[in-house]
């Protein structure tokens, strides 16, 4: 038996329960891993609340790292003793878990388990955003909402390393300083400054080729006003709540804009796509171009407390859960 967090009903953080579970042996194509660190992400909140419904009972958690201790028939991607990490599928809030071996990538020796758990989902999300949805080029100016969050800090650094100028929204002066130290050239404190006006000022009225928005309801419509004609709105989260429906005509009125609501699992749908994204992510971390900021650590048993901190926007950088 080993410990895991289970959901028997959806709701607030209090529905996250620590239980003893029987993991069992891996089946064909599966690996069993003993986890050393687990990542915390907003998708975990959506699963807990039922916004993204899952069959119950259910173990959340879409990101983690550990060591393979058993493999099933037909597994060729990893072997017992390998240090590995993953981003999806769910089931990560556990000391030991089963996972399709094709979802695992081997960790370079230079990347520790906590760093891996902090970057797999968030870092490959950034890869998707800046290398595939809109391939950033030197000289471009971009807007990143929640610039001091886990995805935000990685995105700011990676974008800056590519030669982009980064405008980022944050909620406090402390978060502005953190974002600035991680590649955000122009932090904008919401409540003290209007980010649309700041985009106009910084770009001299030219506006932006792309906006990256994980906040959702509070920022979505005004973010469209930051885009140049034929600009791209990448809406990849809804921390402030679901976005109200819009008419496609609005995109035409604001400049023949593009809108995407991407999911990482569609962009890493094949083994070669997963391996490429992980390799590029590991390279920028090993090179020092992206420094991982782990702002909080919680025992896995205390994940309810971690959820409360995340939802109240008290976290900075990445959060890891320690089994």
Describe the protein.
The chain has helices spanning 42-49, 113-133, 150-161, 173-181, 195-203, 220-224, 248-253, 264-267, 271-286, 303-311; strands at residues 2-6, 17-21, 30-39, 63-71, 83-87, 96-100, 104-106, 141-144, 165-170, 186-189, 208-213, 227-235, 258-260, 294-299, 318-322. It has two domains: 2-120 and 293-322, Quinone Oxidoreductase, Chain A, domain 1 (Alpha-Beta Complex); 138-261, NAD(P)-binding Rossmann-like Domain (Rossmann fold, 3-Layer(aba) Sandwich), CATH 3.40.50. The protein is globular and about 60 Å long. Helix 2 (113-133) crosses helix 3 and helix 2 (113-133) crosses helix 9. Strand 8 (141-144), helix 3 and strand 9 (165-170) form a beta-alpha-beta unit. With 323 residues, the protein is of the alpha/beta class. It is built from ten helices and 15 strands. Strands 3, 4, 5, 6, 7, 14 and 15 form a seven-stranded mixed sheet that branches. A six-stranded parallel sheet has the order 10-9-8-11-12-13, with helices on both faces. 31% of the residues lie in helices and 26% in strands. Residues 11-321 form the Enoyl reductase (ER) domain. Keywords: NADP, Oxidoreductase. One of its GO terms (molecular function) is quinone reductase (NADPH) activity. This is Quinone oxidoreductase. It holds the Pfam family ADH_N.
């Amino acid at each position: 038996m080993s410990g895991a967090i289970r959901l028997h009903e959806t709701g607030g953080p209090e529905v996250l329960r620590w239980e003893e579970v029987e993991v069992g042996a891996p089946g064909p194509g599966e690996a069993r891993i003993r986890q050393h660190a687990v990542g915390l992400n907003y998708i975990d909140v959506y699963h807990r609340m039922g916004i993204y419904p899952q069959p119950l009972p259910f173990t959340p958690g879409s990101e983690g790292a550990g060591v393979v201790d058993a493999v099933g028939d037909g597994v060729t991607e990893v072997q017992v003793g390998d240090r590995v990490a993953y981003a999806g599928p769910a089931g990560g809030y556990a000391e030991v878990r089963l996972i399709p071996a094709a979802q695992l990538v081997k960790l370079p020796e230079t990347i520790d388990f906590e760093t891996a758990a902090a970057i797999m989902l968030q870092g490959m999300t950034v890869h998707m955003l800046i290398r595939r949805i809109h391939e950033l080029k030197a000289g471009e100016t971009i807007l990143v909402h929640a610039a001091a969050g886990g995805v935000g800090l990685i995105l700011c650094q990676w974008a800056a390393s590519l030669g982009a100028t980064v405008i980022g929204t944050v909620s406090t002066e402390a978060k502005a300083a953190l974002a600035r130290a991680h590649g955000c050239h122009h932090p904008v404190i919401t409540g003290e400054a209007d980010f649309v006006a700041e985009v106009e000022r910084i770009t001299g009225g030219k506006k932006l080729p792309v906006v990256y928005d994980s906040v959702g309801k509070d920022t979505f419509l005004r973010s469209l006003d930051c885009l140049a004609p034929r600009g791209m709105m990448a809406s990849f989260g809804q921390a402030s709540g679901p976005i109200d429906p819009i008419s496609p005509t609005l995109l035409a009125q604001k400049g023949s804009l593009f809108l995407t609501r991407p999911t990482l699992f569609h962009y890493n749908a094949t083994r070669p796509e997963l391996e490429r994204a992980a390799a590029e992510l590991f390279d920028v971390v090993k090179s020092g171009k992206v420094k991982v900021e782990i702002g909080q650590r919680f025992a896995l048993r205390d994940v309810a407390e971690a959820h409360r901190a995340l939802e109240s926007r008290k976290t900075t950088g990445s959060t890891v859960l320690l089994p």
